[in-house]
Amino acid sequence: MTAQTKIQGATPRQWHTIKLIENPYLRYGFLALVVVYFFWSLGTLDIDWHRVDSGMTRAGNMFSRMVPPDFGRWELLVKGLVESVQMALAASFFGMIVAVPLGLCAAVNLVPKPVYLVARTIIVLSRTFHEVIIAIFFVKIFGFGPLAGVLTLIVASASFISKMLAEDIENLPPGQLEAVRATGASFPKLLIYCISPQALPRYLGVSIYRLDANIRHSTVVGIVGAGGIGQVLAASFSRYDYDFSLAILIAIVTIVFVGEFFSTWVRGRLR
Amino acid sequence: MLTVENLTKVYPTGAKALSDVSFLVDEPKVIAIIGPSGAGKSTLIRCVNRLVEPTSGKVLLGDTDVISLNRRGLRKARRRMGMIFQEYNLVERLTVMENVLSGRLGFVGFWRAYRRKFPSDDVAAAFRLLDRVGLEGYHNTRADALSGGERQRVGIARALMQAPDLLLVDEPTASLDPKTSRQIMRLLVELAHEAGTPALVNIHDVALAQTFSDRIIGLAAGEIVFDGSSDQLTADVLTRIYGEEDWSTTIRTDDDNDNGMTEGSDEGKQKGRPEKDQGSIPEASAG
Fold first, then answer.
1. Structure confidence at residue B254 (pLDDT)
2. Among residues A232, A230, A251, which one has the least CA distance to residue A241?
3. Whether B111 contacts chain A with CB within 8 A
4. Which of A148, A163, B175, B283 has the fewest CB atoms found within 10 Å of its own CB?
5. Do B162 and A183 count as a contact with CB atoms less than 8 A apart?
6. Start-to-end C-alpha separation, chain A
7. pTM
8. Distance separating alpha carbons of residues B144 and A204, to the nearest angstrom
C-alpha cells in the first residue's frame, strides 16, 4: 500500500502538449500585443463611413445598370475571348518548352552549383513580379496588344513550370539516379531513362494546370492593355457600358470553368 | 580481377569512412563484407565504381586504373561493374523489361535508348534472365507494382544484363524478410557462380554472410580487421569487428545443415546432406 502510493507520487499524473511559446507571460503578452495592434491599426486606417455609404448606393446603381447583360456586341466579345484563349495556349506551349532546360538547370542534384544558382536566380526574379507588372513592362516595350500579353504569360508560365519541375527532380529518390549512373549511362541517357519517366506525368499535369491558370491570367493582363478579353472588359468599364461588362464577366466565368474542368479531367487521367 | 590498394575516403565533414583499405580479388568468388553500421561498407563499394570519389588510393579493375579515369573512361569502366542495391533502385514508372534493359544503357546509342529499341540479342538475353530469376511473364509489369523480393530479382537481372566483370552488391537483403533474403542470396550466389563473376556483397547479417559467401572481409571503423574464409569466423573475430557481445548464437556450427549452395531450396534439403566441411562454398555448383 505504501509502496504503491509512493510510486504514484513519483509518477507525474499531469501532462500537456508542448506549447509554441513555453513561458505563459510571454505567450499571453504576445497575444495581447497582437490584439492591441489590430485595434490601433483600425484607428489609423481612417475609414470614412460616409464614403462607404455613398459607395453602397453607387454599387446598387451600377449593378442595376448591369442587368440585363448585353450580348449585342457578341462579335467583339468572341474575338476577345478567342484572343485570350490563344494567348493562353501559346504562352503555355512556349512556357513548357522554356521550362525544361531551366528546370533541369535548377535541380541541385543534377547540375554543378553555379549553374544551379544562376537558374534559381532567374526563376526567383521572374516570380518576384506579378504578371500585371511584367505586362506593363512589355506593353511599354512592344505596345498594346496580345504580343505583350503572350510574352508576359510565357515568362510567368516558364518560371512556374520550371520551379515545379526542378522541385520534382530534386525529390526523385537518389537511389534510382545512382542505379542508372552505375550502369555506365551518360547524362542524356539518365535524362531519358530515369528522370523523364519519373518526372513526365507531373510535368504534364503542372503544364495543364498552368494552361488553366493562363486563361484566367490572360483576362487580367488585358486590363493593362496586353490584349485579349481583359482589354475589352477594361474598355467597357471606362465607357460605362456596364451591361456589356456583365456579359464579358459571364463569358470569362464560363471559359474559366471550362478550362478548370478540362484541366482537372486531364490531370485525373495522368495518374 | 580487382585490386584495391590503400583506399581512403574522408568525407567533407571530416568523417573518415575508409582508411588504408587494401585487398585483392583474384578468383570469381562471393566475398561478403561485414561490419557494424558506419564501418564504411557502402562507402567501400561505392568507391570501387566511384559513385563516391575516394580521397586517395588505387582501384584496379583488371588493368584499368579506375581512379584516374576521365568521365568517359569511367562510364566504360562502370559498364563492367554491375551494381545491386538495398532499396532495389528500379526506375519505378518503367516496366520490368525497361529496367532490365537499362543494364545495357552504357552499350547502346542515345536514340536506341530513347526509343527503347535495344538490339535483339539484348532483348533475348533480358528474357532469358527474367526467366532465370523467376519473373517469367512479368516483362510488361510496372516496377512499382512488384513486391520487394520481385524488385530485387529485377535488380539482379539488371546488373547481370551488363555481363559484368564484377558485381557490387550493397545490402541486398536488408529490406527483405528472412525467407526472401535467403532466396535472394541463393539466387545471387548461383548466378554469380554461373557467370563466373566475382561479387563484393555488403551484408550485415553474419549468418547469411557465412552461409552464402566464400570469403569474408570484416570492416570496423573504416579498416579491414579480418579477411579470411567464412569458417575462420570465430567469436574472437566477431568481437574484433563488432565489439564485445555473446556470439555463441550467431556463429554457424558444423551441424547446421543448411549450406545454402544447392540448386533449389527443396531439392537442396534432400541432396544437400551435410558434409564434414561446409565452411567454404563447394566449387562444384559453380560448374
1. 52
2. A232
3. no
4. B283
5. yes
6. 63
7. 0.78
8. 20
A243: burial class by Cβ within 10 Å (0-12, 13-18, 19+)?
Answer: middle
| Amino acid found at A4 | Q
Cβ neighbours for A79, distance < 8 A, ≥ 6 positions apart: A232
Q: What's the average model confidence in pLDDT over A198-219?
A: 89
Instruction: Name every chain A residue with its beta carbon within 8 A of the beta carbon of B107.
Output: 184
Ranges of chain B with pLDDT below 50: 255-287
Inter-chain contact A184–B162, Cβ cutoff 8 Å?
A: yes
Mapped onto helix, strand or coil, the DSSP state of residue A178 is: helix
Q: Which residues of A touch B61 (CB under 8 A)?
A: none
Q: What residue has cell string 505586362?
A: A135
- Per the CB < 8 A criterion, the answer to whether A238 and A169 are in contact is no
Asked, for residue A63, whether it belongs to a domain, the answer is no
> In chain A, which residues have their Cβ closer than 8 Å to the Cβ of B170?
none
**Which SS3 state, helix, strand or coil, does residue B162 take?**
coil
Nearest CB partner across the interface for B105, out of A173, A193, A198: A193
Contact call for A181 and B78, based on CB within 8 A: yes
Q: Where are any strands of DSSP class E within chain B?
A: 2-10, 16-25, 30-34, 56-61, 64-65, 81-84, 166-170, 199-202, 215-220, 223-229
pLDDT at res. A116: 95
Which CATH number among 3.40.50.300, 3.40.50.450, 2.170.150.40, 1.10.10.10 corresponds to the domain B2-286?
3.40.50.300
